[in-house]
Amino acid sequence: MANVEENDIPGVSETILEELSRGVEVAEVSQTTHHGTFSLLPGEELKLRDLQDPEVECIDPSNDGRIRGQLKLTNYRLFFTAAEGEPHDIDIPIHSIQAIDKRYQSEKSYILEIKCKHFLTVQFTFDKNERKKDLYSTLMKTAFIDDGGRLFAFDFKKKFKENGWEVYNFDSEYKRLGAIKENSKWRVCTINKGFALIDSYPEFFVVPASVSDETVKKTVSFRSKGRVPALSWLHPKNEASITRCSQPCVGIRKHRCEEDETMIAEIRKATTVSTHIHICDCRPAMNAKANMAKGCGYETPRNYENIEFSFGNIENIHSMRDSNNKLRALVTQPEIDETKWFSNLAATQWLSYVQSVLNEAVRVASTIENKRSSVVIHCSDGWDRTSQISSLSMILLDPYYRTLQGFEVLIEKEWLSFGHMFRTRTCHGSKTMTDNYSPIFLQFIDCVWQIGQLYPHSFEFNNNLLLTIAQHLHSCLFGTFLFDCDKQRKEMEVKTKTVSLWSYINTCKTRFLNPLYKEKKECILPVISMRTIRLWKQYWMAYHPYHKFEDPTFDRTMELVGLREKIVGESEEARLKNQAANKNNVEKVRD
Predict the structure, then answer these.
(1) CA distance 216 to 193
(2) N or C: which end of the chain has fewer CB within 10 A?
C-alpha cells in the first residue's frame, strides 16, 4: 500500500484500510510489497517479525478465481497484498473481525474465512505448514482481546491539529439551550459527581430547578439502573423540553414513587405554554407489560397529573440484530433471484424497523413543535431506543444538530455521555458475538441518512461523514466508541491515551461538508413512508462481490466546495479592497 495523504478521506472503496486510515500520517517504518510501500501507522507494529510473509490465495467470488499474494499481520490490521497484475489489495482492521473460521480443504491445504462486522467476508487458502499455523494463532490472539485497554486505539499515536475531545462541553451546550442562566427553570444536578449514584450517567445533568437533590436521589431508586429523568433539549420559544430516562420499577403490584411523580410534574410545569406532558415509551406495549414481571414496566397514567402516554412500538435489540443478520445474508449473496429482491428485502424487516424509529422521532418532534408539550422519552434501560429517538427528534427540531459541529456534539451528549453501551453493542475484541450485540447506533446513522435524502439542503455535512462514522465504529482506530459510559472512559483515561474521531474529521472538515447546504432554521417534519425509505447501499452493500456503490457525486461535491471557498475568499478580498477605497475617498474629501 502506498503512503497516504493526510487530507485524503475514508470512504467506501475496494480496500478497508483505505477507508479507515486515509488521512492518517504514516510512520517511518515501511516494507516493500508487490505494489510498492507498505507503511505502518504511528503506533502500528508488525507481528511475526521473524517469519517470511506467507504466500496465500484470496478467493475472489466476483470472477470465480483466486488472487495470488502475500499476507502481513500487524497489531491493527491484516493486510493482503495482491501479486503483480492481480486485482486489488485487501486491508482488514483486526478488531472489526467478527469470526475466524479455519477449515481443511484437503490434506495439504486449508481455508481461512474471515467474517467482519461491517458485512465483509473474505477467504484465504493456505498450504499446511508451521509458518501459517503461527499466523492463524497469532491472528486469533491479536484480534480478540478481552482487555479494552489493549485495543489498537491505545497504541495509535497520530497527532492532529484539532482536539476532538474538546468538541462537547457540558456548560456550553446547556447554556446554548438556555437551561443554564440566571432565573432558569432548570439547574445542574451534581449528585452523580464521581459517578457516585448512576454508573451509566454523566457526572452532571440538568433537572428542574424546583426539584431538590433529595427528590432526585429517591427517584434514582425507582428508575431502572437509576437513570432518572434528565434534560436533553429545550425549545427556544415555547420552553417545551425533551427529557430522557429509563423505565419505572413499578412491577406487577404497580408500585408508586411520590418523588418520581413530583419530578415528572415539575418537568411539565417548566413550560407555561402547555398544561400536559407526554410520556413516550419507545417499546411495544406487550414488551413493556412483560417487564412488569421483572419488577419494572411503565408509568400508570392515573398516578401522574396531566400526562399523555403512548407506546412507540419499536422492537428490542434482539429483533434489530436478527433483522440486520438477515440483511447481511441477503446483500452479500453473490447471486440472487432478481424477481424476488424486493420481497426478500422486505422479509428482513430492516427498512420497516428504520421506518418505525423515524416515525416515533417525528411524533416526538411534532408534539414539541406543534402541541408545545414537553416529552419524556424512555425504553427499558434508556440507552438504546431512547438515544435513537431523543437524538433524531433533536435533529428535526434544532438546525444546530444538522451542522457538522452540532452533529458531533449530539453524538457526544446523547450517545456517549448518556451511556449507550458501545463496547457491549459492538463486542469490541470479543471472540463471540453475545446476545447483547446489536447495530443500534448504525441504525441511528441509517436514519440520519434517510432524513438527509429527504432534505438534501438542510444538512451541513455530507454522506461521507456518516460513512466514516459508521466504519470507525468497528475499527478501534480512535477512542471515541470504545467503552460503554463516561465512567469507564474516565477510568481508562481515554481522553489522554487515545485520539478522538472528531480530531481527524475536524482537521479536514472540507471533505465532510455539503456544498448545497442552506440553513433551514425551522423544524423539519418529514412524512415517513415506505415509499421514501431506501436501502443505504453505499454502506450495507459496500462489499458486495459484484457491485460497488461509490458516491458518484463526491468528486463533484469536492469541486463545488473548493469553488465555494474560492468565491467566498474573492468576495471577502473585494469587500476589504472596497472598504479601503471608501476610507481613502473619505479622507480625500476631508482634506
Answers:
(1) 14
(2) C
Residue in 58, 189, 280, 379 annotated catalytic: 379
Q: Among 529, 353, 533, 532, which Cα is nearest to 442's?
A: 353
Residue 18: predicted pLDDT: 43
pLDDT at 552: 61
What are 420-433's pLDDT values in tens digits? 999 999 999 888 88
Rounded-to-integer distance, Cα 276 and Cα 273, Å: 9
Q: What is the CA radius of gyration of the chain?
A: 26
Given a cut of 70, the residues of the chain with pLDDT beneath it are 1-38, 49-54, 61-64, 84-87, 128-133, 545-555, 557-558, 588, 590-591
Structure confidence at residue 8 (pLDDT): 39
Per-residue 3-state assignment (H helix, E strand, C coil) for 83-121: CCCCCCCEEEEHHHEEEEEEEECCCCEEEEEEEECCCCE
Using CB atoms within 10 Å of the CB of residue 509, give its burial: 0 to 12 exposed, 13 to 18 middle, 19+ buried: middle
What do you get for the CA distance between the two ends of the chain, in Å?
68
Beta strands per DSSP E along 26-64: 30-33, 36-39, 55-60
As a three-state string, the secondary structure of 476-544 is: CCCCCCCCCCHHHHHHCCHHHHCCCHHHHHHHCHHHHECCCCCCCCCCCCCCCCCCCCCCCHHHHCCCC
Mutual angle of helices 350-369 and 317-331, in 10-degree steps: 130
Q: Can you give the pLDDT at residue 562? A: 74
3-state DSSP call for residue 31? Answer: strand
Q: Kindly state the cell numbers that stand for 277.
A: 406532558
Contacts 24+ apart (CB under 8 A), 23-31: 23/504, 23/507, 23/508, 24/158, 24/477, 24/504, 25/158, 30/3, 31/72
CA separation (Å) from 269 to 190, 237, 246, 260, 307? 22, 15, 21, 14, 12
CB 508 within 8 A of CB 7: yes
pLDDT of residue 102: 87
pLDDT for 564 equals 74
Whether 379 is catalytic? yes
- Phi and psi at residue 347, in whole multiples of 5°? -65, -25
Task: Work out the angle at residue 540's Cα, subtended by the Cα atoms of residues 422 and 414, and round it to the nearest 5 degrees.
Answer: 30
Can you list the positions of beta strands (E) in 347-438? 374-378
Residue 225: all three cell numbers together: 439502573
Do the beta carbons of residue 82 and residue 147 sit within 8 Å? Answer: no
Q: Residue 81: beta bridge partners? A: 70
